[in-house]
Write a structure and sequence with these properties.
351 residues; alpha+beta; Rossmann fold; OB fold (Dihydrolipoamide Acetyltransferase, E2P); 2 domains; six-stranded mixed beta sheet; five-stranded antiparallel beta sheet; 8 helices; 20 strands; 21% helix; globular; binds adenosine-5'-triphosphate; AAA+_ATPase; molybdenum; ATP binding; ATP-binding; nucleotide-binding
Amino acid sequence: MSLDVTVKHSFPSFSLDISFSAPTPGVVALFGPSGCGKTTVMSAVSGLLKADEARVVLDGDVLSDRQPAERRIGVVFQDGRLFPHMTVAANLRYGMRRAPAGPVKFDEAVELLGIGHLLGRRPAKLSGGERQRVAIGRALLSQPRLLLMDEPMAALDSSRKQEIMPFLARLHDEMNIPIMIVTHSIEEVARLADTLVLISKGHIEASGPVGAVLARADLPFSTGSNAGAVISATVEQHDHARWLTQLDAQGVKILVPILDRPLGTRLRVRIPAREVALALEEPRLISTNNVIAGTVRTVRETEDKTMALAEVAVGDVLFLSQLTPDSRQDLDIQPNKPVLALFKSIGVQVL
Ligand SMILES: Nc1ncnc2c1ncn2[C@@H]1O[C@H](COP(=O)(O)OP(=O)(O)OP(=O)(O)O)[C@@H](O)[C@H]1O
């Protein structure tokens, strides 16, 4: 099952030509600099923009052959766009108007988004984060087959973003609705997306499973603090004596500071490239808990040439390590070389 999107469109001074496919259900993130064409793709998919060419196929069904209103696509904009004269409850019910019977129930959506205590309020009396949660609820209650979110958190400050992120993560985990989200934030991508579509100047720079794309060393965002690997893992064991939790990622064991999560919990971790050192031999007396044997897949200089980034593969699991040109030379880091990736448990970000 997949979502397949092809959009071609020309504005007087900009042309877009993109095509990607993502497994469904799941979250596809469109990521790229301002003006690269993300909103244009979203508008063509929803039908708000009549693109020169647009083909949207969801699980074999050609949505783009239908009128926009018949596509059953829910849209959440940056600014929520709630009706100011209606209460939260009335805004939510508005979403249900003309909606076919479907899996999303009013009470469940309210509970999922944590907005039960807000039902009687008007939008002016809500915080930005609350408004966005209501806007998501309204879109969900229209029983969409596909949910589009155009920078749903862009208007929020960072603490509000932190507040809403868990709700978006629950949406991902608990609803079987495919989601396409536009974002400028690597953190959002790492936390929410399954498929990452990286757009640059109207074309696709890279697309694929989020872990694989984020671990690539050759992409423009793999510089500075953005560079890092995102890995899906399962909580395998808690070691209370050492205050560590062991995660399993396709057989690769990763130690993190002890987590208050039940065994078997699926989660994602992000390991920034700057936290990962490489060694050629097993180090002795070292404070890094994680020493993982792998093979260098690629190594290349960052765009500003101040650093090198090496992709280290252990089966399908990829790590990214940032090296100075000196250490790259000293260790003679090159493709196919067996290495050990070293990182502290506290260097791992649990998302
Ligand atoms: N209606 C329009 N008429 C002419 N040009 C347009 C129109 N809409 C968008 N563009 C141009 O198309 C390009 C892509 O715009 P788009 O809004 O899709 O970018 P974006 O990646 O979503 O940017 P941002 O992250 O800033 O929202 C821009 O150069 C923009 O100026």
